[in-house]
Amino acid sequence: VQLAESGGGLVQAGGSLNLSCVASTRTFSWYAMGWFRQAPGKERQFVAGISRSGGPTAYGDSVKGRFTVSRDNSKNTVFLQMNSLKPEDTAVYYCAADDGPVREFVPVRAPQYDYWGQGTQVTVSS
Q: Do residues 83 and 17 lie in contact, with contact meaning Cβ atoms separated by under 8 Å?
């Protein structure tokens, strides 16, 4: 599975961005999807995840109430709507896919994911 993120860029604090990740697979609905981010000198951090069905979701504490993850299985795409952005949201954002067997499960740890995109840079200016 190949994953390709897009939608990153430079935005002022308080602004919004919508990231997209397209998966090259005919069985996109078999994968739970996640978003992670990594800032320079810091560990990769879980941002949001969504189950195979698109029902259950999970969020990192620092983005709850500001970010929303969704998916469109007909378009092999997962989205991350980011609102009320802060300078501390600045990072490279990665999309990841997990082909685990549980339909309603949302992995929240990086080692649980099997496939990764190349990342897209998000920079929030103060």
A: no
Q: What is the mean pLDDT of the chain?
A: 96
Angle among Cα 104, 73, 11 to the nearest 5 degrees reads 100
In sequence order, which residues have a C-beta less than 8 Å from that of residue 81 and are 6 or more positions away? 16, 18, 67, 68, 69, 70
Pair of tokens at residue 23: 């998966």
Q: What is the pLDDT of residue 101?
A: 84
Distance CA 63, CA 44 (A): 15
Tokens at residue 11, please?
């935005």
User: How far apart are alpha carbons 113 and 47 in whole angstroms?
Assistant: 13
74: its two tokens = 């007909």
**For strand 9-12 and strand 120-125, is the pairing parallel, antiparallel, or unpaired?**
parallel
Question: At 103, phi and psi to the nearest 5?
Answer: -65, -35
* CA 84 – CA 16 distance, rounded (Å): 6
pLDDT of residue 103 exceeding 90: no
In this predicted structure, the answer to whether residue 4 has a pLDDT above a threshold of 90 is yes
CB 36 within 8 A of CB 102: no
